[in-house]
């Protein structure tokens, strides 16, 4: 027998946790399925300074732990498992996971996204040998060494700033001619003497013997090719939505994102999507939380 | 009850390298959040693989000698040792099901 819930939420970041808070308070039996640990990507943020209500900032881990506590208090259940598919059967939705299958009246997909890979030669071979996807984890291994950061968004610049505490210098390599971050972050990055910028530049190959030693770069405007000696390269080039298991269930755009209407509804009645997994999401913890709440409210209307 | 054993620079050779059984070493540090996320999963896996794989953890901050000996430059890194030699190398946080697949492949 598959266990039944009124609402199954896939993903335990700010979107899923906020959805769970609202569905639980609506007295809908609710299950949240998380494949890693509750909190989502934001647990990697040392300090979240833009979540309203925390003027001194709060760590991403603590913020999401509080969200989880709050939702659990009202009855949200949590299961650690990987979702492997959703099947539609006679008006019911069957959510399949690595642990068990569940029947739901409504499903809220809030599985977020994960760090994208560049897919260039050397990237895979040197992962863990100088190629890193987590600056807070690995910065300390590069004391006094030059490091590259690839990317120009909020995450890239936040990481570049963190890396200055350890590296001799930090070279930000960005394929555009300007950053895509909040002004306050840009000002801080430009004022940091250890951070240098290589604009309109892409990485073509990562080279080294056993560990990363050199990057092959190309200026995308002039076509000029050159090299840069670094001990490490931190990837921060954006995200890939966690929607592989949804192919054939829901229409996805070319990048894999889910398109929703203003009620967070998808093309299938009773299946909602919230947070970073949505096409054109603002990719903020606050907006993800808002999406989750919207989805929860319309899920309740759908069910009752 | 099988729980991961804490190892350090001083007892690494004896506990890990000279062990008869397969030994998994979790290279971690307290500042690394994915490491903290991985820890409870490894606690569970230590139970599941009890008698097959010995689970250990090494704080890279306190034990730089061992960390640099195996060129650890990214954490969490999991190294699986068989008779003193690393036979499998897993970098970064992974969900439990995926880790199980990796361990099953490496230990058979």
CATH topology description of the largest domain in chain A: FAD/NAD(P)-binding domain
* Distance between the ends of chain B: 23 Å
> C-alpha Rg of chain A, in Å?
21 Å
Query: What kind of sheet is the major sheet of chain A?
Result: 7 strands, mixed
Strand content of chain B: 25-35%
Number of extended strands of chain B = 5
Question: What's the CATH first level of chain B?
Answer: Alpha Beta
N-to-C span of chain A: 24 Å
Output the CATH homologous superfamily of chain B.
Answer: Glutaredoxin
Biggest β-sheet of chain B, characterized?
5 strands, mixed
Rg result of chain B: 12 Å
Instruction: Point out poorly predicted stretches of chain B.
Output: none
Total number of domains of chain A:
2
If helices are DSSP runs of H or I spanning 4 or more residues, what is the number of helices of chain B?
A: 4
* N-to-C order of helices and strands of chain A: EHEHEEEEEEHEHEHEEEEEEEH
What's the total number of strands of chain A? Answer: 17
Structural class of chain B: alpha/beta
Describe this structure in words.
- The complex is a heterodimer of chains A (304) and B (108).
- In chain A, α1 runs parallel beside α2 and α1 packs parallel to α6.
- Chain A has six helices and 17 strands.
- Chain A is 22% helix and 30% strand.
- With 108 residues, chain B is of the alpha/beta class.
- Chain B has a single domain, classed as Glutaredoxin (3-Layer(aba) Sandwich), CATH 3.40.30.
- Helices cover 37% and strands 27% of the residues of chain B.
- In chain B, α2 links the parallel β2 and β3.
- Chain B is globular.
- Chain B starts with a strand and ends with a helix.
- The model of chain B has no long low-confidence stretch (mean pLDDT 92).
- The chains are: A alpha/beta (304), B alpha/beta (108).
- The interface between A and B is medium-sized, with 29 and 26 residues.
């Amino acid at each position: 027998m598959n266990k039944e819930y009124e609402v199954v939420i896939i993903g335990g970041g700010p979107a899923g946790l906020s959805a769970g808070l609202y569905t639980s308070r609506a007295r809908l039996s609710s299950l949240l399925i998380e494949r890693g640990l509750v909190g989502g990507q934001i647990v990697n943020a040392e300090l979240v300074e833009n979540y309203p209500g925390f003027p001194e900032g709060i760590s991403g881990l603590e913020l999401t732990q509080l969200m989880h506590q709050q939702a659990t208090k009202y009855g949200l259940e949590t299961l650690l498992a990987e979702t492997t598919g959703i099947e539609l059967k006679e008006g019911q939705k069957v959510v399949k996971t690595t642990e068990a299958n569940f029947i739901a009246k409504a499903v809220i997909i809030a599985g977020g996204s994960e760090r994208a890979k560049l897919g260039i030669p050397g990237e895979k071979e040197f992962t863990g040998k100088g190629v890193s996807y987590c600056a807070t984890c690995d910065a300390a291994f590069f004391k006094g060494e030059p490091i590259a950061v690839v990317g120009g968004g909020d995450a890239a610049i936040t990481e570049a700033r963190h890396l200055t505490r350890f590296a001799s210098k930090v070279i930000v390599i960005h394929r555009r001619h300007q950053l895509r971050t909040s002004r306050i972050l840009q000002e801080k990055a430009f004022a940091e003497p250890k951070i240098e910028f290589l604009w309109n530049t892409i990485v073509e190959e990562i080279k080294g013997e056993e560990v990363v030693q050199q990057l092959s770069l190309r200026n995308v405007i002039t076509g000029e090719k050159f090299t840069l000696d670094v001990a490490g390269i931190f990837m921060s080039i954006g995200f890939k939505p966690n929607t592989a298991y949804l192919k054939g269930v829901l229409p996805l755009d070319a990048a894999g994102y889910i398109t929703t209407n203003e009620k967070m509804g998808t093309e299938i009645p009773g299946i909602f999507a919230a947070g970073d997994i949505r096409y054109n999401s603002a990719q903020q913890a606050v907006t993800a939380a808002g999406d989750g709440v919207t989805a929860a409210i319309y899920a309740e209307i759908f069910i009752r | 009850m099988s729980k991961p054993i804490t190892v350090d620079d001083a007892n690494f050779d004896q506990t890990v390298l000279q062990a008869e059984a397969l030994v998994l070493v979790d290279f971690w540090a307290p500042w690394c959040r994915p490491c903290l996320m991985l820890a409870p999963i490894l606690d569970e896996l230590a139970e599941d693989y009890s008698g097959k794989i010995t689970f250990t953890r090494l704080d890279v901050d306190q034990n730089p000698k061992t960390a640099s000996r195996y060129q650890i430059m990214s954490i969490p890194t999991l190294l699986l040792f068989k008779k003193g030699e690393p036979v499998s190398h897993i970098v970064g946080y992974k969900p439990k099901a995926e880790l199980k697949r990796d361990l099953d492949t490496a230990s058979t």
